[in-house]
Write a structure and sequence with these properties.
The complex is a heterodimer of chains A (about 375) and B (about 900). Chain A is mostly helical and about 375 residues long. Chain A has helices at about 5-15, 20-40, 45-65, 65-105, 145-175, 180-195, 195-215, 220-245, 250-260, 265-275, 275-290, 295-300, 320-330, 335-370, and strands at about 110-115, 115, 130, 135, 140. In chain A, about 75% of the residues lie in helices and about 5% in strands. Chain A has a 3-stranded mixed beta sheet with strand order 2-1-3, with no helix packed on it. A two-stranded antiparallel ribbon of chain A has the order 4-5. Chain B folds into 5 domains: about 5-150 and about 200-275, no CATH class; about 150-195; about 310-390; about 410-620; about 640-884, MetI-like (MetI-like fold), CATH 1.10.3720.10. With about 900 residues, chain B is mainly alpha-helical. In chain B, a hairpin with a 2-residue loop joins strand 7 and strand 8 (about 545). Chain B starts with 17 loop residues before the first helix and ends with a helix. Classes of the chains: A mainly alpha (about 375), B mainly alpha (about 900).
């Protein structure tokens, strides 16, 4: 059907009826686009000619009915964006489903030690346990060690990024002079821009050696990974927290200062409580970043799949959910790949959930501060 | 502490305020201690250092402190940068005093660094106790509250809990729960001591106890340099080398906080000072961490990254021209404003100009003397897993070859800059008949040349067996280029033969010739130049290449025009004439830069180098930067470079931008301008925000499992581009929406009131106003994805030592079956900067760390450049918006 589109297009233009012509143009463009997408999904080899047909039809439409075609194109861009998001989500879940159905709770095997399941927050009485918990050959895949590693790294990162981030946000929002703020704010942004692999390389080359000499460890450790990830999450906490503190209306602080309170009293008793939900949103978002961080963790900690022993040993090391995917995917068998998708879905759900929660908190705070509630 | 309240029986009086000075010194000592703690932690000076090593280190610190405080003091004394705050002055003095005291102590007594650090903590504890007690005894005038407050109490209680647990754990055997008792006793004790007494004691005594205990532990050697504690339950342990600095950091932070409270007289003010000190220290620490990362990577990588860099002196001069222009612009900017009167500011305005001038003169001296400028240094490479030092140098050679790219790029930049500052010469001067007819003929001639080019492009240089290219094409090129040369000289001749009373008058009356000469000449010569490669000819006149010779002549003629008008301008008094002449000068400079660019373009398209007066313009220039311009050389003596990775990253960024920007901006326009603001837009916003924070590895997983099987089944560049595009999409959408939303509704209303349709309004009002924000967002987003690694190692693989770069442009070919156009380069794996760094890590001991550092350094520079450009652009546009 694509071949006759240009001719119909030409006839429509010559008939001179703008309304009909524009409808026709919009309909043909939309049809070609849908056809292109379908072809890409089911016959990828033919996708390029279809794409060219779409471009041609669009170009013709752009010349004749620019306004309508522009509107359609922006709509198409929106739909494609939404489709991309929806499709990535759908595909992840669909790919994770087989492993989930096949193994179910077997993905959460609690490792055994000396015949008994290890203590894991009383979950060991609910979940199954086995002494082999990660062995692709025998089909044992437990994500518990990786989940725990993610939790430990995130806790350490939060302990670094939370307080430092709060103080940093306070500094930028309340303490610093205008000139200093203009210097430090871009500085924090640049800190966010340093690629994670650079952090990872520093950690791999330098910090692991530091840990060896100073903490008598074999190098890779949760401690260093957590601190590095904390520094990486710091800019997120600072900038979102700063936004929250800055959105507290000036009049609230002014009222406090007018009563004779010092700036610190105003901050402590007015700004921070008013912006508290925003600051917590910042911390949540920062923790989301920390959970999703891959390369620094993969570079610092080896890709081992052992289980931290004892649980709170911050000098131990094993793969987190993210670094498991990064390091295992290349050499993974098919069933391992399915399990990696379960890990991916876990990450996706947790981090997207954290993002949505923090957005909700932020929105509620904005509404409250604007007095619309 | 006002002097009015000071009485003679108090320590503080108008004459002697030793309380204030003492506490300022205590705060300063804490800062010094904190710095020393950091230095010891990163092992710049080991905690066991003593004797000359220690005195040298402290001496260096002393020099730094004295220099910093001294220059600030001098600036304050001469009233250039007045420092009025007593506290800042006191702390500055305290810094000098405490560093001096520590250095003297280290020089006189045989102490180690650890002991010295312990002494610092003990001194702090004593100072704080003295301050608290003297305040309680009402020796000094303070305003303490009834209690230090729950916040301070809680913080100190937590510290006590930790200390109690540690002491209890150390004293009792493993397994017993006595450490718990110790923790509770210490924690509760400190908490009560903090909140029960009056604030001046409550906020000093517990801190002094903690700090003093930490200091005593170090001084007595309970935790000494060689101390180790290796608990059974952990796979690691603690050493004195790590614990002592950490004690220092905690102790000095606490004592600084406490001393600051004392210094401001407790109460609300004291708490404010204490809190602000901590907040400021924290901000300083953040900046320090950032600077350390960047500086560290630079120091580690810069030697290897620039090995063997050499550049021809003439090339360096060409590259300096835009810098020179920028410096001139910078120096010119404030002319006429009051700022110009300030001597210091004037100096700073002129400084870049002077620097560029000095640099240019140095480079030019290489050309004159013929001896190269060399800066030699050594760097290490990994040969057979052994570090091996290689000598190399950064050199400016007297080579007079100029690469085409390095000629075209600056020349084009200059031409565009001059053209942008050029206004208009329409309706100026007298229109002669001959010039008018030439003006009409030029477009026809250009069109004819373009048609001819198209003809040869389709049918080849010898269509139907007829040698049209070497006959017709040759004639056309010669005619076109000679005519272009004539056009370029025409205004010069016109001005010189004009019968105006002065030079300025004739230059003004011949103004039409200027536009005709420059723009006509440029257009005609460009058309003739592009005809050459398609017709397969390269006309020579004797030994001289015709087209570039004419281009060079035209450039000289245009330069002569610019000089002529400048001279004429100096002799003219009338403002309007002077303005017109300035325009003509700019036009002359456009011509100079444009024709110079054409010389380079000729060499680029024909591939034959062009020599004149010993200067050679060739495709192979004299800039040699092995790290960036070479691939890995297997088994070579020289280590080669990472060009494949750089090219790969460039293509990835281009591909991702091409995918994400149209989609993102289009969606942002629809969501903001067309769609009704409601559930749907809110949902899309939440979804895009969620997508933005989705871990990058998840995108990689999607790309590896979905895209790769559909794109040839192998790791491929195209998959990498698409995956990075998915990641860039939400950011572009979010920032574009924000900047479109920020366009005031008045703009839209005003446009609608004029009867303009919605699309026209969006196209000509909303989008231009929102464009700066969109561009900034895109630049920042690109900076982020350029360093992205995790998804790439899944969809692009990671290659160590790639020997060939992807050739995307050359990879396109037409095939008979669908999909008709194929590009194998896009479907093969490629190296990229981030994956190259990962490859070094993954290779373990066989990877070359130096190579890794250099790659990381280049990656960092690329990303930071994107960020710097993005942030500068945003600041610039924001200022412009605010001042309008």
């Amino acid at each position: 059907m694509t071949e006759d589109i240009p001719t119909t297009e030409g006839e429509a233009v010559s008939s001179g009826d703008r309304v009909d012509g524009s409808t026709l143009a919009v309909v043909t463009i939309a049809t070609t686009l849908v056809a292109t997408i379908l072809v890409f999904l089911f016959r990828p080899a033919l996708a390029l000619p279809m794409l060219l047909a779409f471009v041609f039809v669009t170009a013709v439409g752009w010349v004749t009915y620019q306004a309508e075609v522009a509107r359609l194109l922006t709509l198409v861009a929106t739909v494609l964006t939404v489709l991309t998001v929806a499709f990535i989500t759908f595909f992840l879940f669909a790919s994770a489903l087989p492993a989930f159905l096949e193994r179910g709770l077997g993905l959460l095997l609690i490792p055994e030690q000396g015949g008994n399941a290890r203590w894991f927050f009383w979950l060991e009485s609910v979940l199954p346990s086995d002494s082999t918990y990660w062995n692709p050959l025998s089909g044992a895949y437990s994500l518990i060690p990786m989940i725990w590693a993610t939790v430990v790294v995130t806790i350490i990162a939060g302990a670094v990024a939370g307080p430092l981030g709060l103080f940093g946000a306070l500094f930028i929002a309340e303490v610093a002079s205008d000139r200093l703020r203009e210097l430090i704010k871009p500085g924090v942004e640049i800190l966010a821009g340093i690629p994670s692999i650079v952090y990872g390389f520093i950690g791999f080359q330098v910090l692991n050696g530091f840990i060896q000499t100073n903490f008598l460890d074999d190098g890779a450790s949760f401690l260093i990974a957590g601190i590095v990830v904390g520094v990486m999450a710091l800019p997120t906490v600072v900038s979102v927290g700063e936004d929250a503190l800055s959105s507290v209306p000036q009049s609230m602080g002014d009222g406090s200062v007018a009563m004779g309170a010092t700036e610190w009293q105003t901050m402590k008793s007015i700004s921070i409580p008013a912006a508290f939900s925003g600051i917590s949103a910042a911390v949540i978002l920062g923790l989301g970043r920390a959970i999703g961080e891959t390369m620094a963790v993969a570079a610092i900690m080896a890709s081992g799949t052992q289980f931290a022993d004892p649980l709170f040993d911050i000098f131990d090391a094993n793969a987190t959910l993210t670094s498991l995917i990064a390091t295992q995917y290349g050499s993974a068998s098919e069933s391992t790949v399915d399990v990696l998708f379960v890990a991916g879905v876990m990450l996706f759900v947790i981090v997207a959930g954290m993002s949505i929660v923090s957005q909700y908190i932020e929105r509620r705070m904005q509404r409250k501060l604007k007095g619309q509630q | 502490m006002s002097d009015a309240y000071a009485t003679t029986d108090r320590l503080v009086s108008a004459d002697s305020n030793s309380y204030d000075r003492g506490l300022d010194t205590a705060i300063a000592l804490s800062v010094v201690g904190f710095t020393l703690g950091l230095i010891t932690l990163v092992n710049l000076v080991p905690p066991g250092a003593s004797g000359s090593a220690l005195t040298t280190a402290l001496g260096t610190l002393l020099a730094v402190v004295v220099g910093a405080v001294g220059i600030t003091g001098l600036a304050s004394y001469t009233n250039v940068v007045p420092v009025t705050s007593q506290r800042v002055r006191g702390i500055g003095l305290g810094l000098v005093v405490s560093t001096l005291a520590l250095t003297a102590l280290a020089a006189v007594l045989p102490v180690t660094m650890a002991t010295l650090l312990g002494t610092v903590l003990l001194a702090e504890a004593l100072a704080i106790t003295a301050a608290g007690v003297s305040s309680r005894l009402e020796l000094v005038d303070t305003e303490p509250n009834m209690s230090a407050g729950l916040l301070s109490g809680g913080a100190l209680g937590a510290v006590g809990l930790a200390m109690g647990a540690a002491i209890g754990g150390a004293l009792t055997s493993a397994g017993s729960l006595l450490w718990l008792i110790g923790a509770v006793v210490a924690g509760v004790g400190l908490f009560l001591l903090a909140i029960l007494p009056r604030e001046d004691l409550g906020s000093t005594l517990p801190t002094a106890i903690v700090v003093g205990a930490l200091g005593l532990t170090i001084v007595t050697g309970t935790i000494g340099v060689g101390w180790q504690w290796n608990p059974q339950t952990l796979s690691g342990g603690f050493t004195g080398g790590a614990v002592i600095p950490v004690f220092l950091l905690v102790g000095t932070l606490l004592s600084a906080w406490s001393a600051a409270k004392c210094r401001a007289g407790f109460g609300a003010r004291g708490r404010e000072y204490g809190a602000f000190l901590v907040i400021n220290l924290n901000a300083f620490l953040m900046v320090a961490v950032m600077a350390t990362i960047v500086v560290f990577v630079t120091v580690k990588g810069v030697g290897y990254a620039f090995h063997g860099l050499s550049v021809g002196a003439l090339t360096a001069l060409v590259l300096l021209t835009p810098a020179l222009l920028a410096a001139v612009q910078f120096a010119r900017t404030p002319a006429g404003t009051n700022d110009w009167n300030s001597g210091a500011r004037q100096l700073f305005r002129v400084l870049p100009l002077a620097a560029v001038g000095a640099l240019a003169a140095t480079v030019a001296s290489v050309l004159v003397t013929g001896s190269p400028l060399r800066y030699s240094y050594a760097y290490t490479v990994q040969v057979n897993r052994q570090g091996q030092a290689l000598d190399t140098a950064f050199a400016v050679t007297p080579d007079t070859t100029i690469g085409t790219l390095l000629l075209i790029a600056p020349a084009l930049l200059l031409a565009v800059t001059f053209f942008r500052s050029f206004g208009s010469l329409r309706k100026v001067g007298t229109q002669s008949e001959r010039a008018g007819s030439i003006r009409q003929a030029v477009p026809t001639a250009v069109l004819a040349l373009v048609v001819l080019t198209g003809f040869f492009l389709v049918f080849g240089p010898a269509p139907f067996g007829l040698p049209l290219g070497s006959t017709l094409g040759f004639a056309a090129v010669v005619a076109g280029s000679v005519a272009a040369g004539g056009l370029a000289v025409y205004p010069l001749v016109g001005v010189l033969t004009s019968d105006g009373p002065t030079l300025a008058d004739s230059a003004q009356s011949e103004a039409p010739l200027f536009t005709l000469g420059v723009f006509g000449g440029l257009g005609l010569l460009l058309a003739a130049l592009l005809l050459q490669p398609v017709a397969g000819i390269n006309p020579l006149v004797g030994p001289v290449n015709l087209v570039p010779a004419i281009a060079l002549g035209a450039a000289v003629a245009s330069l002569a025009l610019a000089t002529l008008t400048t001279v004429a301008k100096r002799s003219s008094e009338e403002t309007i004439t002077r303005r017109l002449l300035t325009e003509e000068t700019r036009l002359g400079l456009v011509g100079t830069a444009g024709f110079t660019a054409l010389v380079g373009l000729h060499v680029a398209v024909t591939g034959t180098s062009f020599n004149v007066l010993g200067v050679s313009i060739a495709n192979e220039g004299s800039l040699s930067w092995p790290m960036v311009m070479q691939a890995y050389i297997p088994l070579g003596a020289e280590p080669g470079g990472i060009m494949p990775a750089i090219i790969g990253t460039v293509w990835l960024v281009i591909g991702a931008t091409l995918f994400a920007v149209p989609l993102g901006v289009g969606a942002a326009v629809f969501l903001t301008e067309y769609a009704e603001q409601g559930r749907f837009t809110a949902l899309v916003e939440i979804a895009t925000n969620a997508l933005w924070s989705t871990p990058s590895i998840v995108f990689g997983l999607f790309g590896a499992a979905f895209l790769i099987p559909r794109l040839g089944g192998d790791e491929s560049l195209l998959a990498g581009m698409l995956v990075l595009g998915f990641m860039l999409l939400p950011l572009v959408l979010i920032t574009s929406r924000e900047s479109i939303k920020a366009v005031p509704d008045e703009y839209r209303d005003a446009s609608a009131a004029l009867g303009v349709t919605q699309w026209e309004t969006i196209k000509s009002v909303v989008l231009p106003a929102a464009m700066p924000g969109v561009i900034t967002g895109v630049i920042l987003g690109v900076g982020r994805i350029a360093g992205e690694t995790a998804p790439l190692i899944l969809v692009l693989g990671s290659t160590l030592n790639a020997t060939a770069a992807v050739d995307v442009i050359g990879g396109f070919r037409f095939v008979s079956g669908p999909p008709f156009i194929a590009n194998d380069a896009l479907l093969t794996a490629s190296a990229s900067l981030p994956t190259q760094v990962w490859a070094v890590i993954a290779a373990g001991v066989s990877g070359s760390p130096q190579m890794g550092w250099a790659t990381a350094f280049i990656l960092l520079m690329v990303v930071l450049t994107f960020y710097a450009v993005g942030i500068t652009a945003r600041t610039y546009f924001r200022r412009k918006l605010n001042y309008e």
